[in-house]
Amino acid sequence: MAPPQNNIVTSTNRGDTTINVRELLQQPWYKYPHLRKLYAWMSVVLLVQATNGLDGSIMNGMQTLTYWQSYFNHPTGAQLGLFNGTQGLGGVVSQFFLWWLVEKIGRKLTIIAGAVIIIIGVFLQSFANGLVMFACARAVIGLGLSFEYTAAPMLVTELAHPTHRAQLSTLLNTLYNFGATLAAWITLGTLQIQSDWSWRSVSLIQMFPSLISITLTWWVPESPRWLVSQGRNEEAYKILLDNHCGGDESDPLTSFEFNEIQSTLTFEKEHSTGSWLDLVRTKGNRHRTWIVFTCAIAAQASGTTLTGYYLAVVLRTIGVTNAQHQAIINGCLTMWNMGWAFWGAFVIDRYGRRPMMLTSLTGISKDLVRALTEMDQYNVDGNVRAGQASLAFIFLFTAFYSTVWNGILTGYTVEVMSYDIRSKLICTQNLLVQATITGFNYLNPVAIEHISWKYYVVICCIILLEIVLVYFTYPETSKITLEEISTIFDGKHAVHNDLLAKQEDQEEPLDDQKGVAVERREVSTNEA
Q1: Is 25 strand, coil or helix?
Q2: Which of 116, 114, 142 minimizes the C-alpha distance to 430?
Q3: Minimum mean pLDDT among 77-91, 163-177, 350-364: which range?
Q4: How far apart are CA 202 and CA 211, in angstroms?
Q5: DSSP-derived secondary structure for 319-356
Q6: What is the pLDDT at residue 65?
Q7: Comparison of pLDDT for 334 and 37, the residue scoring more
Q8: pLDDT of residue 163
Q9: Residues facing 124 on adjacent strands
Q10: pLDDT tens-digit readout, 6-26
Q11: Of 205, 85, 94, which is closest to residue 151 (Cα–Cα)?
């Protein structure tokens, strides 16, 4: 009889009942047929974030298109902020009911509903006949996007094999750069169209990821955690068995995961009131809420909205005024960011969340200061070399950002949330992200035109504060299962997997309980 595919190694420095998820599989994921199938379907969910990237890059690209500028009378300042800011308003409104909806109808249906809304918004935007209609379309698109990026991180985190949870959940948000790259180069191509279709055709492209979502999401497995919460235990067990163990009932991981999920959700249900006050009721939940609150703001307050939505404006301030040159730089920058984001997603479990966040913030602060210094020098004396240097430091700054912060909102904050408050905290996080983006989208074009470097000095001070927050308040969460992360926040009050204790009390495996056969070994878990 072939040995089980998953080898459970227990007793990490998080406790005797925790397991090292990096030790589970002895081969790469692509050598397991069931994981190839699972991740092929999950790629449909991962594609969700490409829609957001398309949106951000398209708004950047449209500002380089002559016909878009002419059609909307060359918007600047607060008016330009309105074009981008209304997208966030749609996302803000939805967060007040999405926390309930995603638990009521599940992760998959929420994603599909969001895709339908996005398609409606894209049609309105593509055929807009004025500022009001365009702004309303942006709000509708923001509403639909919020459906998708509320449910998608939950589904990816809760469905992925434990060994690959960190990489996949981080990869979700990094696919923003994939969508942004496509949009940037497509926009460059449409510069040759001598009509309003130069921007209308680019806008229509936004619907294609949503069409894929509507068509294929039905066949993606539902979250086993959500199924257990709905009392559909047999379905949840079958999904874990088929997708994590290849249907092998002798594999110990299925029982280990199912018991851990069931016992944790039962405990949380017994001790949760279902109220929003649960977010601050216990010491562990207050810590979780603090991380989500600060991380959501930090991810958007590090200068990223500047290059993400107003790159064309920034380029004009350093002497790059040719529309084609702006479009080429936009395309190259998004490809550059995508490469670094993908690399960060694949190494985040190896190096740890904390070390990567601290390194990223240090690099961001250093290179952003240099970029702004050179930009100011160009504005003072028109030094061409200063403008070129500023552009180089923009590339370096965005590389440090993309490596970590593109994916951290799905690769770190979602996993620190316990199931009973996950939907509420994700909506809180999205609300903060959208509010921060909206605020910076209104302020950035005004800042570029009027208060220049003083505004960016404030951003640098914010980044230094973020470094302090990460160092003192963000714990490491790598190499343990999703439920076991509660041991970090809840300590002795956390639920422990009792199958391991039962295993020790018996000489034979618990076949009647689908017990877990384990290898007992001390494993060191990296903590920064």
Answers
A1: strand
A2: 142
A3: 77-91
A4: 16
A5: T---HHHHHHHHHHHHHHHHHHHHHHHHHHHHH-HHHH
A6: 78
A7: 37
A8: 92
A9: none
A10: 877 765 556 555 677 888 888
A11: 94
> Residues 138, 83: contact at Cβ < 8 Å?
yes
Q: How are strands ordered across the β-sheet holding 9-12?
A: 15-19, 9-12, 519-523
Q: What is the DSSP letter of 221?
A: P
Q: How many CB atoms lie within 10 A of CB 506?
A: 10
Q: Report yes or no: 30 and 43 within 8 Å, Cβ to Cβ.
A: no
Residue with tokens 């950035």: 444
Please tell me the distance from the alpha carbon of residue 372 to that of residue 366, in angstroms, as a whole number. 10
Residue reference for tokens 């309930």 = 100
Cα separation, 525 vs 87, whole angstroms? 41
Torsion, Cα of 162, 167, 172, 175 (10° steps): -160
In order of 46, 114, 174, 191, 499, the CA distances from 513 in angstroms are 35, 40, 40, 65, 9
Residues 6+ apart with CB under 8 A from 347: 356
Q: Kindly indicate the confidence band of residue 160, based on its pLDDT and cuts at 50, 70 and 90.
A: very high
The beta-carbon contacts of 499-503 under 8 Å, at least 24 apart in sequence, are: 499/255, 499/256, 499/259, 500/10, 500/16, 500/17, 501/17
Helix (H) or strand (E) holding 521, with range, is strand 519-523
| 3-state helix vs strand vs coil in the chain, percent to 5 | 75, 5, 20
Reported confidence tier of residue 5, pLDDT bands at 50, 70, 90:
confident
Indicate the length of the chain as a whole number.
528
Instruction: Tell me the pLDDT tens digit for each residue of 308-328.
Output: 666 777 788 788 888 788 878
Q: In Å, how far are 156, 159, 339, 427 from 230, measured between CA atoms?
A: 18, 16, 39, 20
Instruction: With H, G, I as helix, E, B as strand and everything else as coil, classify residue 73.
Output: coil
Which residues on neighbouring strands pair with residue 12, listed in sequence order?
Answer: 15, 523
Return d(Cα 259, Cα 263) in angstroms, integer. Answer: 6
Say how far apart CA 121 and CA 119 lie, in whole Å. Answer: 5
